[in-house]
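In this section we walk through a basic example: taking a raw amino acid sequence and producing a predicted 3D structure, encoded as discrete structure tokens. The instruction is simple. Fold the sequence below.
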Amino acid sequence: MTLLLALLLALPSANAGVLHTSLPEKVVMDKDGPSWGRAVVENLPTGFGGAVADGLKAMLEEQYAAETVVAFRAKDVDEAGIVRGTGLTTAELGERLLEANVRFTKALGGDARIVVSVRDQKVFTAGDLATDTVEALDPTQVLFALDPTVELNLEVWVGTRQGETSAEENLPAKASFGTVGLATEVEPIVDVYTEVLRERGQPDTLIIEVETDGSVEPLDAIVESLQALTSSFGRLSKEAKAEQDRVDGLDGDAGL
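The resulting token sequence is shown next.
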């Protein structure tokens, strides 16, 4: 509610003779599990629902970041490039690690380095990457098979990324020999659905439904995108006012 009020107040008011607004009376949110959520905003000014829907959809689809595995180093790799105990090449191992759904448990200033050592296991799961700062969304998610008689030693880096990042960019600074950077493509928002319900002469009702890959809470994504949208309108309003003052000043100087 507060975010939408701020968004409306950032726009020209009725006193300016530009827009008459009736403020939202009700915002209702609900969710189904960790990957689907919906917000229904009622009593938006007529014609305003579409503008909010378009801006919010762009924020969600293009600007949302999430955590992912970005690099790793396997301690024991044979001459054929196979990581001992896995039967996988380093390239194949990197692909499997990228499948892990992980997220930070608290804000970090950079990437998190995880040291993993496992033995007597038949499979390596996303839960094997969990630490006090990194959480596996599904700890039972199987990433690859293991030879239980061989100890697997890995260093794994997890970081927050947005969109596409090259393997070179993901390579940790001062990385040890054998460290592999992974090309990442982060798209935590799976789908965004918006609908504006409108009756002639009546306020708009906006429906927003968001599906994620589980690495971000859908309602968090909606609220954070609204914050970003509100901030953008606020900056635009300040820029426009500053430019108006500059132009008015020029007009005043010309009249002297």
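Looking at the output, two observations stand out. The longest strand covers residues 152-161. The CA atoms of residues 125 and 141 lie 5 Å apart. In the next section we compare this with other chains.
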